[in-house]
Amino acid sequence: MQETHISLAHGNGGRFMRELIDELFVKHLANEFLDTTVDAARIEFEWGYDTFVTTDGFTVKPLEFPGGNIGSLAVHGTINDLSVAGAVPKYLTLNMFIEEGLEIAQLERIVASIGVAARDAEVPVVAGDTKVVARGEGGGLYLATTGFGLRNSRIDLGMCRIREGDVLLVNGPIGDHGTAVLLAREEFGLRGDLKSDSASVFEIAQALLMVDGLRFMRDPTRGGLASVANEIVAATGRGVRLKESSVPIQEPVRSVCDMLGYDPYYLACEGRLVAVVDPHHAASALSAMRTVAGGTASTIIGRVEDDSKQHVVLETELGGERILEELEDDPLPRIC
Amino acid sequence: MQETHISLAHGNGGRFMRELIDELFVKHLANEFLDTTVDAARIEFEWGYDTFVTTDGFTVKPLEFPGGNIGSLAVHGTINDLSVAGAVPKYLTLNMFIEEGLEIAQLERIVASIGVAARDAEVPVVAGDTKVVARGEGGGLYLATTGFGLRNSRIDLGMCRIREGDVLLVNGPIGDHGTAVLLAREEFGLRGDLKSDSASVFEIAQALLMVDGLRFMRDPTRGGLASVANEIVAATGRGVRLKESSVPIQEPVRSVCDMLGYDPYYLACEGRLVAVVDPHHAASALSAMRTVAGGTASTIIGRVEDDSKQHVVLETELGGERILEELEDDPLPRIC
Fold first, then answer.
1. Closest Cα of chain B to A194: distance in Å?
2. CA-based nearest residue to A28, from A65, A80, A72
3. Which of residues 141-180 of B touch A (CB under 8 A)?
4. Which candidate in A125, A143, A155, B138 could, as Cys together with A58 as Cys, close a disulfide (CB 3.0–4.6 Å)?
C-alpha cells in the first residue's frame, strides 16, 4: 500500500479496498476463523452452554487517548458486556466507518490495538466490513463490534434477582475514562497524565461467578455509576444508597470535574464492573475481586434499600444526601 | 417522546435515550429475544448445524430511495450474505450511528422498515446499540448489522469448487440499486421511476441448494457483477467470460450510465445472486431459480474459462471483447 491517507477508493470493493484489507487488517487480525474472501464466517459453539450476543458502537473523540484508543476500547467494551452477563467471550465481528482523509498510520495503530486486545482476551475477530465516507460525513473512524460468548447453563444472573439489603461493589475508581478523554481533547486548556481505565473485566467477572450470592453485574460505561444505579432502581422498584466516602474517585478526576462542572458519578468508565451481592457474601465477593488483576482496588460502595424511596441517594461525606437523578443532558458526547 | 429531531441527549445513556429505545425501537423491533435492559442477549442454536456469522456497514445516501431505505437495505444485505453462504439466517444485531438533527419521523420510518424486513425474513433483531454524533460528524444515519445463520453440515460451497466450463447465472437485471440511489440524489438533474432491487435472495439461494452441481453463490453488491467475476478470477486463476447480450440490464440503467459515464457492470445490486453451477446442471439450476419469487427473470450470463487468460472478458453484442478490470476508483461512494 503506497498511500498515506484513506481515500474513497479504499471503500469501493475494488483493488484499493482489497489492499487495505490484506495488508493492514489481516496483518493485525489474522486468525484461523477470519477469511476475507467469504460472505459469512463459520464459527463453532459448544454444546451445553447458552449463547450470548452483544453489539456496540464506538465514536470516541479523539481516536487515541492516554490508556487506549477507539480500537482497544471497542474490544474491551464488547468483551465486558459479555463478561458481566456471565459469559466467556468467544468471537468478535468488526465494522469500520472510515472518514476520507484518515491517516493510514493512525488507522494501523488502531487496528494493531484491536489485534492486541483481541489476542489478550483470546477472542478472534471472525468477520468485518469497511465503509469509507466522504470528508465531513464522519468522525475519522467509527467502529461497531458484535461479540458472542458462552455461559454455563446453570448460571443465573439478573436485576430481577436483586433484594433489599444487597450490597454494591466496584473494582476501582470511577470516571477515569471520561476524564482522560476530556483532557485528551485539550479544548479546555487542561492537561494531565490521567489514563483511561479501558480494560477487560473478564477475570473479575469470572472470579465473582465463583462466589455464592452474586445477583447481578454491569459495566458502568455511558452515563457512569449513577446510570447503573438508576437502572437498578427502575428495574427493582427499590432505592439505591451510595456512600460518597466509599466511592473511589481519583484526585485528577475530582478536580477536572470541579473546574468544568461535570459530575464524576455520571462519567463513563471502560474497565469497571459494578456487582450486586447478597450481604452475607459481600466479604467473600470482595476478596475474590481483589485477588485478580484489575480488581485489587475493589471496594463496597453502597446498598439496595427498601421500596419507600425509588431514588439513587448519595450520602455525602458531610452527612447530607444528594439524589443522583437519571441523566438527561449529554455531559460528554463521543466519550466512547 | 415529544421531540421531533435527534439531539445529543438521545445518545447519552439517560432518559432521552431510554425513551427513544422504548418508544421507537422496541415498538418496531420487539421479539422474544430482544431485552433492552441486558448487556448481552441469549440466543439459541441447533445442534448438527454449522454456525455462520457476517457483518456489514451501511452508509447509503439518501437514507430513503425508491424501493427501500437504509433500514431494509441493511436487513436484506445481511440476510443475503448468509443466504449465499448456504445458511438460514436466524438472528440480527443492529448498531445505529445517528447524526444530531436527524428527523425522528424519518428515523421511525427506517426502523419500521427494519422491523418489516426482519419479520418477513423471520430473523429477529436480538441486540442493538445507539450512538449519536454531533452535526457535521455523520451522514444522518449509518447502520451496522451482524447476522448469524445455520447451515446443514453437509453443504459444501466455495470459490475453490469452481471448475473450467462452469456457468454463471444471475436472478435478474443488474445495476438497479446503484442507479436508483443515484437518481434519488437528484444532483444530476435526472429523475426516473427506477426502483432499487433491494430484497432478500434467501428463497433463491435455498432453491439452488436443492440442485446438484451448485459450486458457489455471491450477491454482487459494492463493485457489482464485474467485481464478483474478478474475485472468481483471483481465487481460481481462471478466466470468466460474460456475454453482453445475456446480461440483463434495464433500459433506464443503461441510459443513466451512458449519460453519466458509469459502467453498469460495476454498479451495486442489493437483491441479486450470482451462482456458479456445473454446466451439466445449469438447466435445472435455472428452472429452480425461476420457480421462486425474485427469480423469474433468472438467466445464464457467462462461463468460467481455462487458465490461459486470467481476466474477466465481456463479449460485446457486436462480437468484440472488453476486459472488465478490477475496480480502482470509486464510481459511487455511499451507494450501500
1. 23
2. A72
3. 142, 144, 146-149, 151, 158-159
4. A143
Residue of A43, A93, A230 to mutate, interface with B, max B Cβ within 10 Å: A93
Angle at CA B291, nearest 5°, toward B288 and B295?
A: 90
Residue A274's nearest CA partner among A317, A308, A238, A304 is A304
pLDDT digits (tens, 9 = 90+) for A32-80: 777 776 667 777 777 778 889 999 999 999 999 999 999 999 999 999 9
d(CA A41, CA B106): 33
Asked if B34 reaches chain A (Cβ–Cβ under 8 Å), the answer is no
Weakest mean pLDDT among B46-50, B295-299, B311-315: B46-50
CB contact under 8 A, A82 and B8: no
Q: What amino acid occupies position A144?
A: A
B59 touching chain A per CB within 8 A: yes
- B56: cell is 456489514
Q: Would the CATH topology of A8-152 be identical to that of A159-323?
A: no
In CATH, what is the architecture of B159-323? Answer: Alpha-Beta Complex (3.90)
Asked if the Cβ–Cβ distance from B13 to A221 is below 8 Å, we say yes
Q: Do B40 and A50 touch (CB under 8 A)?
A: no
Q: Is A137 within 8 Å of chain B by CB?
A: yes
Residue B274 near residue B265, CB atoms below 8 Å: no
Which of the given ranges, A147-161, A187-201, A234-248, B20-34, has the highest pLDDT on average? A234-248
* 8 Å CB contact of A136 and B136: yes
The closest CB to that of A327, out of B13, B39, B59, belongs to B13
CATH class label, B8-152: alpha beta
Cβ of B54 and A40 within 8 Å? yes
A6-32 confidence digits (pLDDT tens)? 887 787 667 787 788 888 878 888 887
Report domain extents, chain B: 8-152, 159-323
Question: ipTM value of the model?
Answer: 0.91
Q: How far is CA A262 from the centre of its chain?
A: 20
- B237–chain A Cβ distance below 8 A for any pair: no
Q: Among residues B148, B195, B176, B162, which one has the least CA distance to residue B254?
A: B176
Q: What is the pLDDT of residues B61-94, one digit of tens each?
A: 999 999 999 999 999 999 999 999 999 999 999 9
CA distance A297 to chain B (A): 24
φ, ψ dihedrals at A319, nearest 5°: 95, 0
Average the pLDDT over B253-281 and give the result: 95
Question: B10, B35, B129: which to substitute to probe chain A, counting the most A Cβ within 10 Å?
Answer: B129
Give A99-139 pLDDT, tens digit per residue.
999 999 999 999 999 999 999 999 999 998 989 899 999 99
**Contact with chain B for residue A227, Cβ under 8 A:** yes
Residue B76 in contact with partner chain A when CB distance is under 8 A: no
Which pLDDT tens digit goes with each residue over A252-281? 999 999 998 999 999 999 999 999 999 999
DSSP A290-332: HTSTT-TT-EEEEEE--SS--SEEEE-TTS-EEE-PPP-S-SS
Q: Which residues in chain B have their CB less than 8 angstroms from residue A57's CB?
A: 95-97, 129-131, 144
